[in-house]
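Q: Two folds, back to back.
A: First:
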Amino acid sequence: MSYRTLLVIILLVPALLLGGAKALGVTLPVPIWGRDYVLRFAFAGEAAAPLELPRVEGADDPSRPLVVIDAGHGGRDPGAVGMDADGKRFEEKAITLAIALALRDALLEQGGVRVALTRADDRIVPLPHRPEIARLLEADLFISIHADSAGGQNDAVSGASIYTLSSEASSEAAARFAARENDADRLNGITIAGASRDVSAILVELSQQRTQEDALAFASLVLREGESALAFVPQPRRAAALAVLRAPDVPSVLFESGFVTNGNDRARLTTPEGRARYAGVLARAVRVFFARRADGLQGGE
């Protein structure tokens, strides 16, 4: 078929269809371009949305300490996934958000601090944006909340743990966890201009000694306050090169609340009573942390 013949067919066929429809009294719908006919798809490697600072809640007093709570994962990134015997699916992103909201409410009710959430709904927040939000808000403490998976239907592994930043992992399990969490953006097709492992390594080296000491102190308080209230893994204090903790001037911890693949942990993670217990432990640790810091500042004056 020649090019000219093909061109004639392309031009004449629509005209003949319209003419026939008009002769028969049939009305053909005409598409309204630029509305529902335009579909948008997310492709791997797409650029991340611009960083948006969240609302700060609590007392309108900038002298009050600010806690930034980070609910891990979100949006198209479900995080760790577990299922019960009935096949019901439990996703980390929903669990972490529920605990983050419960902690926010507990801190606001307790008073004395301001609170901001990196996400307050089911949306994806790029990994580098999470600690950067804490830095830009000049936060005094950053708590990233997560839940883990032991893989498959493994119901034997359970318990909470708490991570602080280190260039060397405290164990092989900590190293595997850090590798998985640090790859979350790559697996979900997000690219951040200028982000690189080299920059992350520099941030680890630049982390202030006082910041790291404060993070370790807060981690110890969480373990102390949760000793009789929560179930922890045998060695709950852990360290790893976690990208979400790489704010060099904000004390940062990652609280691993439990395993979605464990029935007992799920019962604590997915009920209002269980979430209130987690929130209570973290809120008490926050209160003691800032009380001690205030005493230290007064003692140094």
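A: Second:
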Amino acid sequence: MTERRYDIDWLRVVAILGIFIMHSSRFFDIGSWHLKNAEQSFTVLGVRFFFIWVWVMELLFLLSGAASWFSLRSRNGGQYLVERVKRLLIPLYGVGMIVLLAPQLWFELVTNRGLSDTFWQFLPQYFAGLPRDIIGFAPHALQYPSFLVPFGFPGHLWFLQWLFLISLITLPLLLYLKSEKGQRLIGKLAGVCERPGGVFIFVIPMAVFLIGLRFLFRGERTWADFLYYMTFFMIGYIMAANPKFTEGFKKHRWVCLALWIAGAGGIFFFILVLGYKFPDYEPFSLKYVLFQIVYSIMSWSSVIFLLSLGAMYMRSPKKVLTYSNEAVLPFYIFHQTVILCVGWFVIRWDMGILPKFLIIAVISFVLIGGLYEGVVRHFNWVRFLFGMRLKKKPVKE
């Protein structure tokens, strides 16, 4: 039995906290969102892009791939899919669809679509639309992979949709890579990653998917992004299978930090000076190709740097890690709805961006923690709805 990778557990907690901070700041940047503060700042967008955006979902998909490696060590393909349904689809179609996404959609319609109904007036319309969303694919154009798991407004739970689809689509390859031939292939890739510059071999499929597909679609989370994130998932899977990958990552950590910083400067040059439209539609051109290459290198470099830090400094188990690692999925499921509900009140207050952000983040964190501890953690039927393992009953002596 391979030793548990505590660095993966720690980084999963870091990624969820990064997503929490990112969404707590979304009220205040210049981009569109479900709710917006009256005062908005490009600086907030720039800071979030540089410090969180470029790595957070990439790292989360990579860590999910690593978790799939450990899951398939003790499961066959069928058992793995059952586990994926329990962990991903039940939360999506249970507490997500029934409880948590309705407020998000109401905020979206009030802010961006001119809806004047109160939440309680809107709620019957929301539930009336659910059968259409589940049975029909009309709410989604074919450019969005989410239509394969039909649900009209997935909110932040698009991650659960995509992770399930990626797990399903890649399963034959995952099982092959467990075989003797697959292990030999992984060993060769790991050897390449130990050589100078070898870790950047993974930039090739990332850039190919973005260059080949992103110009065809408008907006975020299209097929281009789906295959891009699938690449990170597969890297996570093979990374967990061979420790040489981690050694290669550590050797390249300072180069990757430099590329992360330089890449961020390049991205801002494309957007601010050259007028590149990111992440919206951009016609195929030399500028477009160069942007996708720079973005792929920067994003991958930031992930490698964080993986190397995790491997070097996050290798010890702690009580807080045990608690936090179990709480990450419920925390993720709760977080955006809670943040929006708190922000609905706070953004109306007469104060600056920073105090509003801090108030929203602190109150939301406390509320999410309270919901997890008081509603989810101790009750098996609720744990099941949130995709968690059930607690074993104590054995009577």
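Q: And?
A: The longest helix spans residues 77-112.
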